[in-house]
């Protein structure tokens, strides 16, 4: 049974997902709303969607069955709760929210309403994470005791343009968004393969020195001057996880913006920008051919026109070889459409649609989303306190 979707936000990311929702056989109609009405109208026209709503409240008052939220990253929490309380299933871009209280409110709303919530975390479907899940399931890691996740996305490679597009005249006040409040591309990849959660953290922030008004506490609406941050987490399963969130870094993030490492007692996995290896006591195996994605779309495709040129590479990836076992369940209607973020977009949309239609928990449900997001929230507070070790609350395992 197909359902209707309302997109909230018609910016650079929404257009890609609008196309996928529109063509998914489990979705019957897609509408859009945006605080800039012309953006919503343009997206409806370019993607052949079903219409616009003037406001978010008007969308919530409509018969739309689900909403997909693509607004600015610090706005998600309250919008998600409002949508759930209005009786809508919710797909939300990352992060889940930016405070413990907001995350708790989402989980409570999901528990009380019984509606579907899914956070659209790309790293859960990252080929490295898929491969590591397979290796863990087969026992080849032995006991995992350490994981690393790096989200190394330099501001000069697309983020200036993205913040200027979304932030208007005051874009510098929002471009200072704290790196550790956007933690899911690093944490989600590590914990997407390793079924545990973080229990405590100590983090260090690097004060920015560019001097261009970004990451300037006098300008920042987040009172933030950290452009880079590193966090070390203790894990419930024993062992540790370290993540880096870097926004000033000499690294080709257009080639691989998230990279991972896992170490176990019997095997280990490591990535660089263009090389990936599996290792054990007998030697090293280059598995780059299993992990690298094949481009399925030209960068001059019309669907990419609204995206900053330096960000477009993230939206043109195909599937990796390790995806092939799961690729068969993707509807054929999506097969020739734009994919992105190392083959994740098709899986993200399909898992949400399946969860709503089949009344099942999606992989990155509210409880899992909290475990991908809240550690970063607490880590940012630790960094602000000079690395103080802080306890991370946990909301438990998923409940229907």
UniProtKB/TrEMBL annotation:
* Molecular function GO labels: nucleotide binding; oxidoreductase activity
Kindly give the InterPro entries that the UniProt entry links to this protein: Gfo/Idh/MocA-like_OxRdtase_N, Gfo/Idh/MocA_oxidrdct_glycsds, NAD(P)-bd_dom_sf
Domain Gfo/Idh/MocA-like oxidoreductase N-terminal as annotated: residue spans:
3-120
Keywords, alphabetical:
Oxidoreductase
Q: Membrane-crossing residues?
A: none
Database matches in Gene3D superfamilies:
Dihydrodipicolinate Reductase, domain 2, NAD(P)-binding Rossmann-like Domain
What this protein is called in its record is: Gfo/Idh/MocA family oxidoreductase
Q: Which organism is it from?
A: Microbacterium esteraromaticum
